Amino acid sequence: MSGIVVVTALALAIGALLGIASKWFPSNTESIVEKIDELLPQTQCAQCGYPGCRPYAMAIARGDAEINQCPPGGEQTISDLANLLGRKVVALNTEFGEQKPPALAYIIEEDCIGCTLCIHACPVDAIIGSAKLMHTILIDHCTGCELCLPPCPVDCIEMRPSALPPASTATS
Amino acid sequence: MEPVNKPFRTGPLTVNTIMLLVIAALVPGTVIHIYLTGWGGLANLLVAAAAAMLFEYIVCVLRNKPVRETMGDHSALLTGLLIGLCLPPLVNLWIPIIAAAIAILLAKHIYGGLGNNIFNPAMVGYAAVLVSFPRDLSLWPTLPQSFDFGIIQTINIIANGGLVEYTHWDSLTGATTLDTARTSTGTAGQHITIGLERWTNIAFLCGGAVLLRLRLINWHIPVSLLATLSLCALIEQAINPNAAGLSVHLLAGATMLGAFFIATDPVSAAAGNTGRLIYGAGIGLLIWLIRTFGGYPDAVAFAVLLMNCTVPVLDYLEPWRWRK
Amino acid sequence: MNTRATKSIRSYQARVDRALRPATPITTRELPPTLQYRIAPGSRHNIVVNTDEHVHTGQTLVAAIADGPASIHAGSSGTITCKQTDSEGHTTIEIATDGYDSRRFKQAIGDKFRSMSSVQLQQLFHHNGLVGLGGACFPVAGKIAALESKPASVLLVNAVECDPAILCDRALLLEQASAAIRGIGIAAHACNAQKVIIAIKNDEPAIHTAVQNALEKNPVENSSICKVAADYPVGYERYLFASASEIPVPENTHPTALGLISFNVATCIAIAQLIDRGEPLFSRVTTVHKPTTGAIQNLHIRFGTPLNHLVQGSDTTLQSVAYSGLITENLPSRRTATISPASNCVILNPEATTQNDCIRCGLCADVCPASLQPQQLLTHSEPLDAKQLARHQLDRCIECGCCDTVCPSGIPLTRTFQQAMQAIHQQTLQIQAAERAKQRFAARQNRLERQSAESQAKLARKQAALTQRTKQSTPSADPRKQLLESALRRRSKKPKTDNTPPPP
């Protein structure tokens, strides 16, 4: 009899504690998004189907997106995300693209007609130029997302290999 | 074209020479040990060493490792010798073989071989047989047994189950010093004398001093181990004058062997100097605790194994000396 | 502190000494068919030659950049081929040597340097490719500029090759002591040195006499010779300042911040050659070891000479190479197998050593001059754990290689640490790039939102204005309508008044 009482009391007490804990320490979606965003390569290439790394992080946090939709991050990012979120490591979903060697965009300046289309496409404002004037790419800011390639009407942008691999998270 | 490091090999020490020097430093203590334990002790050493080398060879073949280089480091030989030195003479032939198998296969190669083992292989082997065959291993013949038994008789005994099968020879076996110390604690008027094993311990102390002189081992572990053990023994004796005294703790059992040859095994010991001091002190304290309150008369193996568990933490904390 | 390392290094030194006892002459090698200069990507470079152009020895290939790298000069006359970037983004300039070695140097300055200012001399050094020849290749001008035109309290001349395998400075001092002293005088003038200390090893009496004789002939103001213990790694700049000038350089402080500057002997000779002969820096003396034949030579070689060219005789193929001697060793990339200003020592086809697992013996920690724990660093280097490496202060490693010489397991510790440092550096760059991209993306997102909000607001305002206008226009907007309405109103009133009987 006393055993039942003790066990019931224990269960109630622990339940109450858990309840209080969940009230006091709510799971913070904001910080989870932040943490996921930290792990993403920040190329802002939108290959995942979201307009940038942070939107993708938000989608993962909401549960709308899988963790294997980031081609630039590749396996490293997938395993880091799996580690963070306690999920299984899965292979990269190649529907979203293949992992490529790091590259930077380069404008062949003599071919550029100054249409400003690429400037609007660049997610990190790494292209400077003005209408009917030659454009150029700030290589320090280029993430190699390739978003400037399709809008170019004269195909004067090409990808060149970069010495630095794309920022993948290897901090942890 | 590959870059090659260390184009000129100049270091005087290799793993191989270190092991051989340690084995050489073991020799004086081993000779006295054999003198005291007779053919039985010698048989233990030979069987354990041979078994350890054999298992090392088998593992090398199984793991596709270059046999000559892996065997050439002589670490298996050292492990076998340490096991042989810990076992009482005239035990069942299979006991040193089992101990060597556990040491080499389980404690060493399962973890990836020399350099990767967490626990001291010899002590794992010894501890395993100590808990598995308590009766066999607590049976020490009265020392000096010397060469009372001839070779043939010794072989007969060990091949037929060891001394434990011959318990009717009561006169042969006797309690070791530490056994006496443990059972006598608190009994007034009983004086504990250290057996002849003190000479073994003194010889191991000398061997250890040579290793220290050659700077093959650091002073931190043996000094802090012996200091802590002495301190505990002195405090105990101050409280209870009949307790086993300082000399018993230092010169009986495997204290010196443990302090200079077992605890200082670099692979399973702490790496930094502060860590080494704590590691040694922990072993000293545990030896005293287990000897005084534990169920086993000698405690070096368990103390070393328990402190092996703490090494990752000690190593992790090592940079503390820079935090000023 | 590191007696064991010292002992093992001394035993090697004895071996080298035996091999070299007769003489250590500097010999010149015939020119190779091609000289190659590889220019790293990312750095700012200004290549001033074109493919198929003919150049003379000493002509500028890559112009110097202020506050950046010094210029690079042709090591021989010949025809240029510029190869565009390879997969790693390097540009290679190749000279097909014509064998004439026709030199065209600028006017020598000679003693006129005394009337030149420090800044003028820095310019001169920078545009003639002068970099430190001790191994770090730091531009000479940059080093002097770091003093920020304050006079240097101590100019330390580093003639202490602590690494026993490097013998080029020793040979230079024995054969060209007067040029070295001349260069020291010029360097002292360039950095307004108040005091000049020439540090030499205490076990080299021949060098001492050579330097002393040269000093007597051509005195340098406020100069003194300081003998330091020959124990490795005393030649490391920070340690040498401590032992030779008795000024300790604290961690995280660059010596120049304390007014201390140091030059290698070979650098001083290069300075003298520039001033007295107008010769830019395009060659150096390198110690070449060939362990397979036991040969040790001090060769005067042009930069850009492929190492293959140095392999001759019985060992015809170059399989492996180690740089910078016994201990200090830089990691060569496969394709950079040419002589560079940093190659003070090249070891061709070195003996391979076996390697075992770490047995945690702690010998490496005993000998580490920086009091690090190399074995802990090793465990955290593979797999790389940047946090732990920072905790164990990998950044304090001076890559002296003492740990390598004592390691009983033959582990290439220094190389592992170099790789770890490179990887960490790469990671830091990546993280910085990611952070930058994140911020710029967020900024752009904000801007787009703001712009769309602004345009929407503008639209809304316009719409509001329009609807208001149409509302108001119903009663009174149109003047003609107004007239019509008022007329109607008047008309509607009129019948009423009409209905009323006319006033009598």
Question: Globular, elongated, flat, extended or rod-shaped: what is the shape of chain C?
Answer: elongated
Q: What is the strand content of chain B?
A: under 5%
CATH superfamily of the largest domain in chain C: NADH-ubiquinone oxidoreductase 51kDa subunit
Q: Which structural class is indicated by helix and strand composition of chain C?
A: alpha/beta
Distance between the termini of chain B: 45 Å
Topology (elements, then pairings):
The complex is a heterotrimer of chains A (172), B (324) and C (504).
Chain A lengths: L1 H23 L4 H11 L13 H10 L11 H12 L17 E5 L9 H5 L5 E2 L7 E2 L19 E5 L11
Antiparallel strand pairs in A: 1-4, 2-3
Helix pairs in contact in A: 2-3
Chain B lengths: L1 E2 L11 H48 L4 H5 L3 H12 L7 H16 L11 H12 L1 H4 L13 H9 L17 H8 L12 H17 L6 H20 L6 H6 L3 H8 L10 H21 L6 H17 L8
Helix pairs in contact in B: 1-3, 1-4, 1-9, 3-4, 3-5, 4-5, 5-14, 9-12, 10-13, 13-14
Chain C lengths: L2 H18 L5 E3 L5 E6 L6 E2 L6 E2 L4 E4 L8 E2 L4 E6 L7 E7 L20 H9 L13 H6 L8 E5 L9 H23 L5 E6 L3 H13 L5 E6 L8 H9 L14 E5 H13 L5 E8 L4 E8 L17 E4 L21 E4 L14 H5 L6 H8 L4 H6 L10 H5 L6 H64 L2 H21 L5
Parallel strand pairs in C: 1-14, 9-10, 9-12, 10-11, 13-16
Antiparallel strand pairs in C: 2-8, 3-5, 4-7, 5-6, 7-8, 13-14, 15-16
Structural description of this entry:
The complex is a heterotrimer of chains A (172), B (324) and C (504). Chain A has five helices and four strands. With 172 residues, chain A is mostly helical. In chain A, the strands form two sheets. A two-stranded antiparallel sheet of chain A has the order 1-4. Chain A has a two-stranded antiparallel ribbon with strand order 2-3. In chain A, a hairpin with a 7-residue loop joins strand 2 (127-128) and strand 3. Chain A is elongated. Chain A starts with a helix and ends in an 11-residue tail after the last strand. With 324 residues, chain B is an all-alpha fold. Chain B folds into two domains: 14-174, no CATH class; 187-192 and 200-324, no CATH class. Mean pLDDT of chain B is 83; it is low at 1-10 and 185-191. In chain C, the strands form four sheets. A five-stranded mixed sheet of chain C has the order 1-14-13-16-15. In chain C, strands 2-8-7-4 form a four-stranded antiparallel sheet, with no helix packed on it. A four-stranded parallel sheet of chain C has the order 11-10-9-12, sandwiched between helices. Chain C has three domains: 1-29 and 107-352, 3-Layer(aba) Sandwich (Rossmann fold); 31-104, Beta Barrel (OB fold (Dihydrolipoamide Acetyltransferase, E2P)); 357-470, no CATH class. The mean pLDDT of chain C is 81. Chain C has helices at residues 3-20, 118-126, 140-145, 168-190, 205-217, 237-245, 265-277, 363-367, 374-381, 386-391, 402-406, 413-476, 479-499; strands spanning 26-28, 34-39, 46-47, 54-55, 60-63, 72-73, 78-83, 91-97, 154-158, 196-201, 223-228, 260-264, 283-290, 295-302, 320-323, 345-348. Helix content of chain C is 40%, strand content 15%. Chain C is α/β, with parallel strands linked by helices. Chain C is elongated, with a radius of gyration of 36 Å. In chain C, helix 4 (168-190) packs across helix 7 and helix 9 (374-381) packs across helix 12 (413-476). Chain B binds chain C through residues 1-15, 17-18, 69, 73, 112-116, 215, 218, 266-267, 269, 271-272, 315, 318-319, 322, and chain C through 4, 7-9, 11-12, 165, 289, 291, 318-323, 326, 329, 331-332, 334, 337, 347, 350-354, 356-363, 365-366, 373, 375-376, 391-393, 401, 404-410, 412, 414-415. Strand 1 of chain B pairs parallel with strand 15 (320-323) of chain C.
